[in-house]
Amino acid sequence: MSKEEIIAELKNIITPYSEETIALQSIDDDTDFLKDLKINSANLVDIVLDIEDRFNIEIDNDSMAKMLTVKATVDIIENKRQGNAG
Amino acid sequence: MTATEILAKMPYGKDFLFVDEILKFDENGITGTYSFRRDLVFYESHFKNNPVTPGVILTETMAQIGLVCFGIYLLKDQDDDAKPAFAMTSNSIEFLKPVYPGDKVWVTSEKIYFRFSKLSCKVVMKNSIGEMLCKGTIAGMLIQQGNG
Question: Across the interface, do A64 and B116 touch by the CB < 8 Å criterion?
Fold first, then answer.
């Protein structure tokens, strides 16, 4: 799965949790979940659980704490997926 | 941790505490009861000459037993000075039968997940003959408060 495909999937997962339609349309590496998408901590937990299901990975507390931007989240997803493959 | 210790950690004052007793609990769920006293202040106005327990109070009762009491138990390994509090972040409740002044209810909660400080539960409320009164899901975030 390419980085672009991961971001596209991420956008699908996040969309139900954000009212910021313009920020969602222009989602990129630098998009910040809290500042740009105005996602609260409770919904961020559900997003992380959805990411676990969709990408078949397990997110630990340390990774969760870093998942504040699209770039950080894609990096973590890619790392965990490589871990699973190997 | 005992039921008495769970109730002692509840952060509510007497006018907004909607749990009388905790009957059973483990890592997967909890059951508790509450009797709606006839002199509760909202019955005067909800409704005029026709007292019925407001849905928002039923939801609060389900949350206090099913989320807050349960959450206090799940955090039992924390030190005694910790004062865990849960802020309700979402709920989806169906109200199937009315609850009247004087009614006693049984609330049972089952854990869906408790991860990254968010507790999500499936919660039901039943009456003394086991009829379902309300059911749904309630979630809240743990807020860690310091000492004092």
Answer: yes
Indicate the CATH number of A3-79 among 1.10.1200.10, 3.90.79.10, 1.20.120.430, 1.10.260.40. Answer: 1.10.1200.10
pLDDT, residue B147, reads 46
Q: How far is B132 from chain A (nearest CA, A)?
A: 28
Reference B127, options B108, B109, B104; nearest CA is B104
pLDDT for residue B145 is more than 70: no
B139/A49 Cβ within 8 A: no
Among the partner residues A40, A41, A45, nearest to B115 by beta-carbon distance = A45
Q: Is B133 marked active-site?
A: no
Report ipTM for this prediction: 0.90
Please choose, from the candidates A85, A77, A83, A23, the residue with its C-alpha nearest in 3D space to the C-alpha of residue A54. Answer: A77
Over residues B41-97, the pLDDT tens digits come to: 999 999 999 999 999 999 999 999 999 999 999 998 887 677 788 999 999 999 999
Tell me how far apart the alpha carbons of residues B11 and B143 are, in angstroms, rounded to a whole number: 12
Angle A41-55/A70-85 helices, nearest 10 degrees? 30
